[in-house]
Task: structure prediction
Amino acid sequence: MSSHPIQLEGDNQAGDLSPKVARFGLGLAVVGLGLGAALGFMSNDHDAYSHFWFAYLVAFCFVFTIVLGATFFTIVQHLVNAHWSVSVRRLSELTMANIPLFAIFALPLLVPAFSDDVEVWKWASMGHGHEAAADHGATDAAGDQAHAGPAEAHDLATQLEHEEHEHFVAAKEPYLNRTFFIIRLIAYFLLWMWMARFFFKKSVDQDTAEGIAPTLGAKKVSAVSVILFAFALSFFSFDVLMSLDETWFSTIFGVYIFAGAFLSCVCWMVLMSKFLQAKGKMTKVINDEHYHDLGKWMFAFTFFWGYIAFSQFMLIWYANIPEETHFYAARLTDAWTGWTWCLLIFHFIIPFAGLLSRHVKRNTNVLKYWAIYMLVLHWVDIYWIAMPNYKRGEAGAGNPFGLMEIALAVGMIGVLIYGIGKKSAKQALLPVRDPLLGKCLGFKNI
Amino acid sequence: MTNDNNFYGLLAEFEDPTALCKGAERVRDAGYKHWDCHSPFPVHGLDDCMGVKFTRLPWIVLTMGLIGLFSGIALQWWTNAVDYPYDISGKPVWSLPANIPVIFEVTVLFSAFTAFFAMWGINGLPRWYHPLLRKKSFAKATDDGFFISIEAKDPSFALERTGDFLNTIGAKRVEEVREADEPTNLPGNIKAKLWITAGVMLIPVGMVYQTWDSTTTEPRVHLVKDMDKQDRFRSQGETSMFADGRMSRPQIEGTVAEGQFFEDMSFVTGKDGGNYVTAMPASITVDEKFLAEGKKNFDIFCGLCHGANGAGNSKIHERAMMLAAQGEAIWVQPTDLTGVRIMDMADGQIFETISNGLNTMPAYAAQISTEERWAIIAYMRALQEEYGDAGPSADELAKMTPVERGDLVFNQQGCMACHTTNGTPLVGPTFKGYVGSDIKLTTGETVKGDLAYLTESLRDPLAKTREGSIPGAMVAYPNITDEQISDLFEYLSTLK
Result:
């Protein structure tokens, strides 16, 4: 059954669509990122730089999680020998193939990581000036003890709190320090770049191969890749997003990010597929059955996201330990309360009800809007994780949201579109000789 | 139609799935209602060929899922917040985050059971027997046979016409199917076996029933013991590690524990220079928000015993009294916080009581923050405003007889929680005939129930304890005046 000829109708080559898409993406990236950077750096306000780097981090993680979701999607299809997804798998592969491009766009994040002036990862600068701070603290404490009167008691309390916080950071210093941070990031990106390259190459090799050796090769590596991917994504989430709050920890955090990543990747694939079909590509090979399955993933991972988000919340809420609760305390006070409720209602309850029906999943025009909707909410999710750490604990920090956030997110989407446009030129949009393609095209949901 | 009652219908075999689908389309178009297709595997598109309407199962599942959702909410709301409000980990009795896991499980349970059993029901399952199974040739339906059956009860059915019709739409072979002529009883001794099985299944139910309402002195069976038997230091425990043999270590002389240094010591001790403070510490502003905070914690920590309005009536009290009436518990009614004794008590003393506990009341300093304890006191004062009865004024008291005043003291100080006036023993001895009686002490001596002993019992209850009394059950009443004791004695003297 390996290479029986399949009559493929429709246009499965991107052809002259590729450069157009790439040009559009490039334009979007230049305008979006340019506008964002201009808004961030034009201001003479020192805090604005930190604000810009937070917004850049949100935009980067927002789009990069889509790419990571696509990587996982591709690998897991090989792992479980899935046939339904063969006709849409190249779409996830094209998304996945942009990991090297996003490695380049991760480089600017070294600025906040290594600059003492920009406060994004506070542990970075704290760890750096640690000895000086400790000396200072010791002197102060000694001074206070010498003439400890009631008037100084308040200062002493603040001082103790400060020292407790420093103790946390010092205890994590062997892990959370600049050198190890950059080593880990390099390791993650090397691993992911290798994965993207390997699975993309195997899939493309299969397009021209006589036997099914490339597909078997991909399958062989898929199991270990999934395990490595899970660890890398978890620790990437810990390092880049969770450590924004250097004292907070939650072991489920990596799973939480994964849920959002996979969800947004499936949404992105629906949009890619709808776009290609609107341009007259892939019209016969992707049908309602495939959209239905993509829709099922959207529904399932909407719920999975809610399940994990609640699991994280409930354990912390119930145990009520101050080291953990401050994450939610910050997000359930003042300006952030609305965003938290927004996530619960718009990222979970409404799409859960909306995507429940089979008819919604099979109505591709409706599904398309749900995909856009969920991607917007995915941005809100990442924003909600990262941004409350900007000016954390300072009065009147509020929740900065404006043109800069939007411009950077749109620009980063533009980067992804550009990358996909470039990548799509060289091979078909469909794994034309995949051994399971026949089953895929004849696939029907019960 | 045929008059033959045993006649079921016609069974037609088709060559392959394609022929089956084509045949099914023709049967559908011919307007038959009571007919079905049979194939060894699911044939895609057969539903459309047969004109089967989309299943209504999802709607049933959705409805039952929603019912499950609301059942889960109602179950927990009723049991936790209404019927038996009980403190668990200091959480509010009705708090959604804690309830969501159960709500989720009940929703899934209802949905899954509904999906499973409603699917059976819609398909007419379970059934033991189907007439088609009598046909030898029908066994091919589990292997390589594709069949259409049309039932005789269909209004369009006519034996010959329908038979010809099936032949014209591509059937390989058409057979007549009849119901069985023999009796339809269960074969062999299946019935007896079912009865025996049912009987055996009742054994565990019987065992549960037997132990349902019984008591045992045996400890529970614990498979994993490490939660019960841990090596650890217990407060008040003994150890050979330290010279004084105590596990709890006293604070080192001249040190202040982290976070325990305060400008205003009365804020954390309730005392100012050894005396209880009579007002809230200066750093506290009593406003609506503060009172709301107090109410929240009062309901969580205090209300469970002292009652939501502080009157000392609560579920725990009701149940304890029930058990006490059966002789299964010894119980002292929780103090009426809206009574005169607590109304007259200094804020600082109440604060100390909440912090360190008193008698059977445990210490709450570890669970309730300092500020929250003051908030509870503020809320208690509000409850007293609302429900409290300050009693007669000084002028009115002066006009009363000593016995009347003594009766008042007896009630206001809550003596009746432990002592009756009618001869029934409670936690403490009855006061009927108390005055002038001989009271045997734990030391073996005997004292008279006179004013001196009453005074001593109120001031320092541990000095001379009655034989058979529960050590520490009687608490000191430092706020009671000598005049009040004298009045109380006069009143007790009347109880003969």
